[in-house]
Specification:
2 domains, alpha/beta, 9 helices
């Protein structure tokens, strides 16, 4: 399922796509196939449990003069992302997400997440995979702006709705969405992204739903849509150019189906029997 193109011919995503195209051509020049050059196997994905996978982040030398500086940033980002996952687990105790780094893995586009790959990643508990480009501008030895271009793929959604061409499973974001932020470090720009909360929560909810764990599925669907609505309200967010309302409607529909499935189960004695399937998540309405 190809990603929908952005209408703006001067979209900043083109810079990232251009860099990936150059990398692909370099790989071909070395006798490598584009898929092999872009998507490298990552052994840590085979660990048990649910996972948020952070792939390679390309960066400009304007921000990081050498690999040592980038490694320091990466350690800070890991710390902040793990804190984010812990906060998510505090709000939703069933959450047990592990952060996995795949430093040599660099997807190029939706084609890398074909049906077989999506199946394998979903079976290994990958909920969300992310990668991107960090770009900084400098004037007179001073950083004047920072921008992060990040792609996300919701693996459970990609797997279960692979043939649904009306539903995006890959989203491209820019942080910050408006003017570049001079004073906000990259680790903060990424770790504060509400889209991570939305996409991971929705992905976990989908896995609970497919496992017939309807109480947990409803909780995660509703919380995920609440995060998604918050993300949609951010001024200038590229998310709003990628039909997030369709994703929200899909999640709301599954939430209602979770209630119906529980109510039709004669052995189920939980609280979903008291809920209206037509209004599963009233607090998540935009």
């Amino acid at each position: 399922m190809p990603m929908k193109p952005h209408s703006d011919e001067h979209s900043p995503f083109r810079r990232w796509r251009t860099l990936l195209l150059v990398a692909c051509l370099v790989g071909l020049a070395d006798g490598m196939s584009p898929a092999r050059a872009q998507l490298t196997p990552c052994e840590d994905i085979n660990q048990p449990g649910l996972k948020l996978v952070l792939d390679q982040l390309a960066f400009s030398e304007t921000e990081f003069a050498n690999d040592h500086q980038f490694k320091i940033f990466l350690r800070k980002l890991q710390f902040k992302l793990r804190n984010k996952l812990r906060s998510l687990a505090y709000a939703l105790p069933e959450t047990n997400l592990t952060l996995v780094l795949c430093k040599q893995r660099q997807p190029s586009d939706a084609q890398d997440f074909h049906r077989q790959m999506s199946d394998e990643l979903n079976a290994r508990g990958v909920v969300l995979e992310m990668w991107g480009l960090l770009e900084a501008t400098r004037e007179n030895n001073r950083i004047t702006g920072r921008r992060a271009y990040i792609d996300y793929v919701l693996i459970p959604l990609r797997y279960y709705e692979y043939d649904n061409r009306d539903l995006n499973s890959i989203y491209s974001m820019v942080y910050p969405p408006a003017s570049p932020a001079e004073t906000v470090p990259f680790a903060d720009l990424l770790s504060q992204a509400i889209e991570i909360d939305a996409f991971t929560t929705i992905g976990i909810g989908l896995k609970f739903f497919k496992a017939d764990r309807f109480d947990e599925a409803l909780k995660y669907f509703c919380k995920g849509n609440t995060y998604l609505v918050q993300a949609m309200k951010i001024a200038g967010s590229p998310l709003n150019q990628q039909d997030p309302q369709r994703l929200a409607a899909y999640v709301s529909t599954l939430a209602g189906q979770a209630i119906k499935a529980a109510q039709s189960d004669s052995t189920y004695q939980g609280g979903l029997r008291l809920l209206d399937p037509a209004k599963p998540c009233p607090e998540a309405l935009p």
